[in-house]
Amino acid sequence: MENPGLPPHRERVTDLDPRKDRQMSRRVVALFLFSILASIFAIVAYFVWPIDVSVEGFGTIRNNNMAIGIGLAFALLAIGTGVVLWGKNLMSGEEFVEQRHGTRGTDEVRAKVVKIFDDANKESGFGRRKLIRNTLFGAIAAWPLPAIFLFRDLAPAAEPHELLRHTMWDAGIRLVRDPDGTPIRAADVTIGSAFHVIPENLEEADHVLDAKAKAVVLLMRLNPAELNEREDRKDWSYDGIVAYSKICTHVGCPVALYEQHTHHLLCPCHQSQFDVANHAAVIFGPAARPLPQLPIEVDAEGYLVAKSDFTEPVGPSFWERER
Q1: Is 125 a domain residue?
Q2: Which among 21, 160, 243, 310 could bridge 292 via Cys, Cβ 3.0 to 4.6 Å?
Q3: Any idea where the Rieske domain is (predicted)?
Q4: Does the pLDDT at position 197 exceed 70?
């Protein structure tokens, strides 16, 4: 088969006009500099629009993620566009044929490798176009920097168990149904029933979902004769009605499956089981401690109210381990 040879070489506008070459070079540099600025914007956005502070509607997860995402997207887009323009317009456009040859670890092979790198450097202009090269390095170095700042969220400012020690519950706060917020009368809680409960003042929290995640409670009524209560906790229940944190002490899944005949609570994630009749003690599974109990009583109108907050941290037990 006859070798067709290479097609005729077509000169590019940057090959023919040095002024166009300089314009394209400045354009590529500008893109790399823009990428650096976009990365810096993503870092600044992380602090200007924090997730946990409401600043005229901008301090939300959605807007925080949007600002950081825009910065990272434009930073990466500018790097890609700049590299494409550099390759298509400024690097060598000469066609060539690379012949196959054996590769052996000889001095001759090493010399060929060095020559290949030398030729690549000359064709790309990598060593000659220092401004483009350095701004590319800067853009590539700046683009991952926002991720370093985002890692800060993996380490809370306070110890995790301290963040889980206090919830929206307090003395006199009514227990209301989740999600409609209907107050619960003790007389309406029948033996064997279970209610998903939140504090009445939940909407007052700065971050409702975060507060709800810590304060959710499961309310149940047993026959008082079947409750085995410690002396120091006999006044934490009311006529067989008990309230326990809904957050599993294993890894924090919602414990919401109640077996009224056995008085067992089941966590659907890893099958931990808790005995409601015995202070929600762990009877099966990987959970390390009982569910925290919420002390309750009845107010003058017959509604169930909290006597205090939980007396221990809610949620996973591993937060309580020392680092």
Answers
A1: yes
A2: 310
A3: 214-305
A4: yes
